[in-house]
Every structure is written in C-alpha cells, then in structure tokens.
Amino acid sequence: MVRAACILRAAFSPLTLGRSDMANSVTRDVVKQLAPGGKLRAALNYGNTVLVQRGENGGAPRGVTPALARELAKRLNVPVEFVPFEQAGLVVDALKANPNVWDIMYLAIDPKRAQEIAFTAAYVQIEGCYIVRKESPIKAVEDVDREGIRVTAGKDSAYDLFLTRNLKHATIERAPGLKETVALFRRDNLDVLAGVKQHMQEVLAANPDLRLVPGRFMVIEQAMGTPRGRGEAGAAYLRAFVEEMKASGFVANELKKSGQHDAAVAPPAS
C-alpha cells in the first residue's frame, strides 16, 4: 500500500493512503489515456487458463484478469469491453496492427514486448516447467540445453521468448497453442515440452507416459500493461492500481475463487 501511494503521489497530488483516495485520483488525463474511446477495452489471453477462464455457456469470463479489468473500469467510471485472444503473441500482434485495438492487457513481462507495452510490476508469478517421456535421460532442467535436444513451445509465449534468448545449444520448434504443442511433441518425437506448470500438470494427467522435470526454467511474471505512447498519467495509475490490488488481497482472493491455488501473488514492486 505504501509503495502504491508513493507512486501515485508523484503523479497525482495531494493524496493520502486508501482506496477512496486512489479512486479520487482519477484525473481526466488518466481516463483519456486508459480508456480513450469511453470504455476500457481489456485484452484477454484465453491461452493462459491460470489467469482467465471462459464463462459457462458463453457467459462472462472468469478469473483474476477479468476481475481486475472490471475493478479498474469501475474506478475509471467507464464500461469494460473484453477483447478475446487465443494466444499471448496475438495480443501483441494486434497492437502492432492497430494501436487502438485494446487499452489494457495481461501478459508476462518480456523485454521484446516492452518495446510496445508499458508494463506494471507483476501481480502474479507462475512457473515455466519441462515435460519429458518417462524413459528420457533428462533428469534436471540443466540437462535440456544440449546439442541435439529439441524443445517444443507455444509460439511467442513468454517462455518461448525466454527460451529463445537463453537456450544456446538446444533447438526450439513452435506451435500456436497448448494442444498444438503437445501434438507436435508427439508427432515429431521431440525431446522436451515446455510450458506453464499448471498446463503441464494437465498434460501429465492425460498422458501417463510423461513426467515433469524437477524444478523450473523460469519464473513467469504476469503483469498488466497499456500501449506505449499514450502518456505517463495512465501508466502511473495502472502501476499503482496493481500494487493496491496485491496489497489489499484482491489478487489472492480472485486466484482462490477461480481455483488457481498454485499461482503466487507477486511481491510488492521494488
């Protein structure tokens, strides 16, 4: 809470601690920069079921990200409109094609994405893990980056971007989504399947011939963000909003409500 208030004090003065004070700090510039069309268009990545789940029978989306969008829209006093995407990479691609396609989004922080997006600090941390066949000689995360090892990953996902930068010897083969990466892993007899831990646990449940490699190859820091170039007032408000949502227990409660008990609330921004 103190950190959030400090951020806001720099952009919106005078302020004191508390939710009502933060709500009162919503200036015209904040609304104009975060909801320039008179509504808050929130991009949802349905490829990450830890953060968002489809509503039953076509109903309203569930999960921590739509909950955050609704709360932010309430603070801005504008309606919320969800803009659906099936993969993380498509969220960024859409922004490049049309800078006004969405106003806020929820993706993992990544240097490449940060060229287009002004990120907040993380609000949730999840793990990137590997799956291999039970008979695989790979016993640890460190065994993966070797000549001849072929890894499959979701195209333009946070872990794909990370592995592209960090794997020096293993090669990466990509498919557009989880089902497609599993199919590619099976069809081409690849060595390693990379993904979000919760998704990997789902794969293991359906494939008893596979096993999880102990440990993690990365911590995936999920954050909110807004398109760069719209102004600092909106970006600063969004950063402070995320800190308050973590400190107040809002994020933890929404994760619990959506059954995501393995996802961790990120620590306060440093």
Layout: helices, strands, pairs:
Elements: H1 2-11, H2 19-24, H3 28-34, E1 40-45, H4 64-76, E2 80-85, H5 88-97, E3 105-108, E4 117-133, E5 150-154, H6 158-166, E6 171-175, H7 178-187, E7 192-196, H8 197-206, E8 210-212, E9 218-227, H9 232-247, H10 250-257, E10 264-265
Parallel strand pairs: 1-2, 5-6, 5-7
Antiparallel strand pairs: 3-9, 4-7, 4-8, 4-9, 4-10
Helix content: 25-40%
Q: For the report, how would you describe the main beta sheet?
A: 8 strands, mixed
Radius of gyration: 19 Å
Overall domain count = 2
β-sheet strand percentage: 15-25%
Number of helices: 10
CATH architecture of the largest domain: 3-Layer(aba) Sandwich
Strand element count: 10
Give the end-to-end Cα distance, rounded to a whole number of Å.
Answer: 12 Å
Provide mean pLDDT, rounded. 91
Q: Residue ranges: pLDDT <50 for 5 or more in a row?
A: 1-20
- Using the coordinates shown, work out and report the CATH topology of the largest domain: D-Maltodextrin-Binding Protein, domain 2
The CATH superfamily of the largest domain is identified as Periplasmic binding protein-like II
The dominant shape is elongated
- Structural class computed from helices and strand pairing: alpha/beta
**What is the CATH top level name of the largest domain?**
Alpha Beta
H/E topology pattern? HHHEHEHEEEHEHEHEEHHE
Molecular structure report:
The chain is an alpha/beta fold. It folds into 2 domains: about 170 residues, D-Maltodextrin-Binding Protein, domain 2, CATH 3.40.190.10; about 90 residues, Periplasmic binding protein-like II (D-Maltodextrin-Binding Protein, domain 2, 3-Layer(aba) Sandwich). About 35% of the residues lie in helices and about 25% in strands. The chain is built from 10 helices and 10 strands. The strands form 2 sheets. Strands 3, 4, 5, 6, 7, 8, 9 and 10 form an 8-stranded mixed sheet that branches. The relative contact order is 0.20. The N terminus is likely disordered.
